[in-house]
Amino acid sequence: MASTIRVRATSSGETTEVQALIQHPMDSGFVKNAKGEIIPPHFIQELTFEYDGKSVFVADWGGGVSKDPYVKFSFKGGKKGDDLKVSWVDNKGATDTTTAKIQ
Amino acid sequence: MNVRFAIHLASAALALAFAAMPAVAADKPDPVADAKAFRKFFTDKFPKVKLEDFVNGPYSMNEDMHRQWEEKEQFPPYEFSLDMGKEMFSKPFKNGKSYADCFPNKGIGIRQNYPYFDDKEGKVITLELALNRCRETNGEPPFSYVKDEMAALTAYMAFTSRGKPFDIKIPDDPRALQAYQNGKQYFYTRRGQLNFSCATCHVQSPGERIRAEVLAPALGILNAMPIYRSEWSGMGTTSRRFTTCNSQIRGVPLSPQDDEYRDLEYYLSYVSNGLPISGPGARP
Amino acid sequence: MRVSTLSLASVLLIAGSTSVLAADSEADFKAAYAAAESANKEAGSLRNQWTVTAAALAAAKKAADTGDFDKALASSKEAEALAKASIFQATSEKELWKDIEIR
To answer: Exposed e or buried b for every residue in B203-239, given b needs 16+ CB within 10 A?
Structure first.
């Protein structure tokens, strides 16, 4: 199955800029469907970006983050050709992970 | 000949002359002149905006928004829908045929020709309508016109036409001209309890705000369709936009693909001829 | 005895007239609702119904269902006024649209 994570990391020498688009419903648990029933909460709780075995960005999310979240950040270091690992865990215990090469 | 007879003759002649004159035609629509005036109105109003940039709607109206949009375009929110659309488009129907069989050039790179006027049917055919007809002809149930699958399919078809200029044709057929004129009239007609017409926002106030939203100019307004709208947290088609605009001004929306909407799309697309297809797009 | 007969009579009279009034207001409501519906239907044929008209009609019906005919009557009259305004709008816009056309 195709990954839910699309990531692009570009190194400018000293810093690496990372952009990621993650496919996830991010249901807060407060919204009702057309029949008036609550759509149960279903959202990413933790999103982690790892480089060289260390976490360079960790997000603790709740239902307030919108569907298909987009993240952009920069971290010091990161070399072209190195791996950047991205993974998430949601409130139902589901996970996904992907590894991209820094460009 | 006596005077009386002469007068009679003269009046008869005059009467004949008038009778011979063709009845004053009701203003025959002149789409070419309309489109020229339409384009001039917006380029005069926004002299610093390049013609092709009008297709970016609010992003061409506001610098800060433009910067955010440029960033967003690197990782656009419509990507998932676009991928889904590509998959859907190539998957055959249960009867073995596929969308490619319903469209010229297998459906690739043709979005800029829609809507078109079908002279057999005497009506305007939009891309969304054509897609559902394709499905029904091949024994498949039609999709909802406003989002999800329809948005994904039209996103893919728009993508294959990116950069191509809108090329809407109005044949010299009174029915086509009437459809065009109906679309134009719809655009400028005020409706709903709030008494807005499409023009109220998109001709009289582009670049200004309605609540927190920056309004797009009407020139090029359909070029980016379908769009991922942050407000919707998802994709929406031209049908979605027309119906939601109606309800926002407290007018009961018509059904998607009703004649009025098809004609409106015909008009708006025609007056944006020459501007590039930029769909699928993203909007606030 | 006389007093109580009088009071009884007046109570009965009031009770009688209240129920007559109630019947009247239900009849009034029904007439007003029909008029509002008819106007809204005409607006529909002009392809210009307003969402607020539908809301007023719904409010009228809801009030009538609970027996509050005064409220139902008021909502029906509002609905009729809104429907008539939408008809006026559609009719006058047939010419007025040209005023804002880009030429």
So the answer is: beebeeeeeeebbbbbbbbbbbbbbbbeebebbbbbb
Q: Does C11 reside within a domain?
A: no
CB contact under 8 A, C82 and B191: no
> pLDDT tens-digit profile of B190-208?
999 999 999 999 999 999 9
ipTM of the complex in this document:
0.85
* pTM of the complete model: 0.85
Backbone angles phi, psi at B128, to 5 degrees: -60, -45
- pLDDT tens readout for residues B18-47: 444 444 445 789 999 999 999 999 999 999
Q: How far apart are CA B235 and CA B283, in angstroms?
A: 10
Q: Where are the domains of chain B?
A: 27-283
DSSP state letters, A21-71: EE----B-S--B-TTSPBPPPB-EEEEEEEETTEEEEEEE--TTSPSS-EE
Q: Which domain holds residue C72?
A: 24-96
Judge if the upstream peptide bond of residue B256 is cis by omega within 30 degrees of 0.
Answer: no
Distance (Å, whole) CA B223 – CA B164: 10
CATH number belonging to the domain at B27-283, selected among 1.10.760.10, 3.40.50.720, 3.30.590.20, 3.40.50.970? 1.10.760.10
The shortest CB-CB distance from C50 to any of B193, B197, B204 is to B193
- Give yes or no for residue A17 having a pLDDT over 90: yes
Q: Which residues of C touch B204 (CB under 8 A)?
A: 100
Interface with chain B: mutation pick from A18, A21, A26, A86, highest number of B CBs within 10 Å: A21
Q: How far apart are CA B284 and CA B256, in angstroms?
A: 23
d(Cα A75, Cα A72) in Å, to the nearest integer?
10
Using CB atoms, list chains with 3+ pairs below 8 Å to chain C: B
Question: Residue B30's closest chain C neighbor by CA?
Answer: C103
Asked if residue C12 is part of any domain, the answer here is no
Backbone angles phi, psi at A94, to 5 degrees: -75, 155
Which of 14-33 (A) contact B at CB < 8 A?
19-21, 23
> According to CATH, what is the number of the domain A1-28+40-78?
2.60.40.10
Nearest residue to B135 (alpha-carbon basis) of B176, B102, B86, B160: B102
For Cα atoms B232, B263, B40, give the angle at the middle one, nearest 5 degrees: 85
CA–CA distance, C98 with B186 (Å, rounded to integer): 11
Query: Which entry of B102, B198, B201, B245 is annotated as an active-site residue?
Result: B245
Nearest partner of B159 among B277, B284, B52, judged by Cα: B277
Please give the tally of structural domains in chain C. Answer: 1
In the annotation, is B198 catalytic?
no
